[in-house]
Amino acid sequence: MSPEVSGEPAGELASKCLCGCGSNVRAEYLPGHDSRHKSALIRSVLAAEAPGTDDATKDAGVEAYAVILRRGWVAHLDKSRQVAQRNRD
Length: 89
Fold this sequence. Notes:
There is one protein chain. This protein has four helices and two strands. With 89 residues, it is mainly alpha-helical. It folds into two domains: 30 residues, no CATH class; 58 residues, no CATH class. It has a two-stranded antiparallel ribbon. Strand 1 and strand 2 form a beta hairpin.
């Protein structure tokens, strides 16, 4: 099993998985963890957009939105907004 899959230290070039799990990786994510990260960011933005949200949640949502923009995941956020709106209606 390769270090990228096992979560074991990957050597000199290792960095931490960007999803926040703490695993060492040679790329940005362990397999599937980009999806985990994207979902967490989307949840953060949707929570920030909810009525009556506190300032800390709004700030976290702004930061999450910046990452979503940088990674090109806006279409995923828009789809989640549509689903959330349908669930509210």
